[in-house]
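Deviations from the work plan: none for this task. Representative record:
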Amino acid sequence: MITRFLIQGMDKRGLVFLALLAGLALLVPLSNLLLPPGSFLHVPTSTMSLWGKYLCYALLAISLDLVWGYCGILSLGHGAFFALGGYAMGMYLMRQIGSRGVYGNPILPDFMVFLNWGELPWYWYGFSSFPFAMLMVLLVPGLLAFVFGWFAFRSRVTGVYLSIITQALTYALLLAFFRNDMGFGGNNGLTDFKDILGFNVQAQTTRAALFAMTCVMLIASFLIARGIVDSKLGKVVIAIRDAESRTRFLGYRVDRFKLFVFTVSACMAGVAGALYVPQVGIINPSEFAPANSIETVIWVAIGGRGTLVGAALGAVVVNYAKTVFTSGFMAPYWLFALGALFVFVTLFMPKGILGTAQDWWGKRRKPEPATPVAEPAAAE
Amino acid sequence: MISIARLLRQLVVLTALLISPLAAFAQGADDAFTRLGADSYSDTARAVEMLVTSAHPQAAAIIEALGDGRLLAGGGAVIVKTRDGKLIDAKTGQPVATEPAGLSAVRLNNNVRRVVQAALGGLGLLNPDAGKRIAAAEAVFKSRDVTVLPVLEAAIAKESDAKAKAALRQAQAAILIVKTDAPPFDRLAAVDVLRERGDQEALATLRSLPGDASPALKDAQGRAIAAIEGNLALWRAGQNLWYGLSLGSVLLLAAIGLAITFGVMGVINMAHGEMVMLGAYTTFVVQELIRTSAPGLFDYSLMIAIPAAFLVAGAVGIAIERGVIRFLYGRPLETLLATWGISLILQQAVRTGFGPTNREVGAPNFMSGAFEIGGLAITWNRLWIIVFAGLVFAALLAILKLTPMGLQMRAVTQNRRMASAMGIRTGRIDALTFGLGSGVAGLAGVALSQIDNVSPNLGQSYIIDSFMVVVFGGVGNLWGTLVGAMTLGVANKFLEPYAGAVLGKIALLVFIILFIQKRPRGLFALKGRAVEA
């Protein structure tokens, strides 16, 4: 069944992407662990962690592409779901520190001791268990997206208005998580992690495993997203993107389709956040910043929205560029470059790298007839 | 015994004061100097009290010197030895070249020291400057020092300035409240005086009434406290309203440009905040230029900055519209992304040009300071910003409704193709409209430079709020923006005392998110065909 789906349902692009990811998942950790550091093919741990981070972003980008590229919902608040997933993972990691914190309190994380808190707040219960934390990684962003989407889609908030209130959502969360009283470490967030499932977070082997895990989750999410958009349901979702009112008049419950896609996407973003935190070693409220969510949008736009592979590609390309730019003498110019990228892509490459490349290939192969690629009506 | 003696003394002083201040000055002071020379504790103490009531110009210096043991007397001369060792004649204030023979320091005992302390406190009450008298009365009001009472009463009798007199009476009342041996009738009157004062400190003073007071007094105290508390709550509400209007006017200024670009043109301008920032930096540059070349014009710097900021932000706005946005009409989400990119570029450009730190923008004289109306503290800069916001709003409304350009703008908004067919150059109108919206954002920057930090991130902190205002008020309607801004501003300030600043803001964001569900197009939604556009 799955193989048939893989072979029949997958276009060449997707297959290449999957093969690449599977290769990365296997080869990078192996090269990091087995080859001697001097070897030409050796991947240093820092590079591996960095790429692990990129792949988390890629996962976030895919989740955003699912709602924006296929359902026309431009969420400017996907960073919130990402950060919530990250916080769920961070809370698990905090509990794993145990009495090894600075204050040596076996139950309370350091920042709570510092704030003179007597006992663990109720919402921290259960996070010492890994399965529970993982459930929360999916559930918390998913539930938030469900409730938010249920209200928003039912009352037909669309287009720009939806974008702005998603932005308000992540902004409200940013403000909330900055508060010390919230019990999430306030300004400093959660950090100083020690163990994950009993393995040292800093250890090379753990990092390799996390990298592999990120690749696996990326593959899984890609397959799920692909499955959704290629299914019958996906056809309706695309129809909603292109002509929402018409789809509604055809008898489809538009709000439910949107809600489903939005919630799934939020869960994916949560997973991305959860994978991101142990690799980066910190989660703080700045992840909720509206600017981060907008940046995610540009990854998708650059890679090519409505392609999934493109979104992942865009995330990796932009973040790689960011690393290169911000680490050298060009650091002050990174924002210029990023800003110019926004303008350039929207003006000249509305279909992103992948879409533009496709058009170009298509033209070279068979100049006639050029298939009119429907420009998705992004908003009503 | 003592009190009778004091009473008599006061009587003497008072009559003297009433007859002629000048005579009293000469008499009281001369008498005091002879007493100081007498070198007896009781004489010294009386001399101090006399000096206080005499309002001798050197009184403060003399009494202070006495307290420090720097007052020398002997042979009819009284000399103050200053801290740096110079000798000054106490009577005339003239420097003395050679130390007369037979001088010795006037001695102190505990009683004299206490009198000196009280006198130094009470001295200000007789200061020729009314402002200083009021300040001294305030100090006495807070200290409730019973020993100052005689001086206080003398001062009240002499006082001619109404404000100072009220302050003195309040100080007297504060003392009477704690002075259990004062006549009951006076104490009741004191409660009334405090009730009239009616502020937080009057409340504290009333509460300090000793527990063994008479039932009548306690009853009066209870009623006075209730009255003051009710009154204070009212003023607090008034103050909150004022803060709210002030915040609302800031929001209005920040959002009204957006109401034009977003509301009228349907363009999501994420770089709007940066236009505000450019306006603030223009103010900074104008002020720098004035500082270096024409310091005398500083008070007019804002007047100069206003048109400058409008032009700078407007020009940048037109450049953005012509360069980027016009290719993206009808694709609002792409516009959002492109303008976000522009905002990043502008921020970084300013950061590179002016540095990442806050820039100091000064306040001209007419903007600084504050005044009070009843229990309301009103700062001039806030007041001017409210006025300015109102003016900008009115001007914008007038432009849209009364000028040919406004007519064309509305025509293009309502039906672009029809307007074009009627000969309106829609492209030009688009550019001008966008320039107008951006220019108004620049004006907001001038105002914000007075109350906020001028940094490259200035715009970022307002962009989300501005969008909230426009979306809440209803797109395409300036009145909606006004109502939205004021509602959000006032609601925010009324929530703050209960929920804290951050929670209040979160509550408002959640409220707006929910509100949008109910009315997806804001408070004042456009009806009819424009909705479809």
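Residues 164 and 204 of chain B are 21 Å apart (CA to CA).
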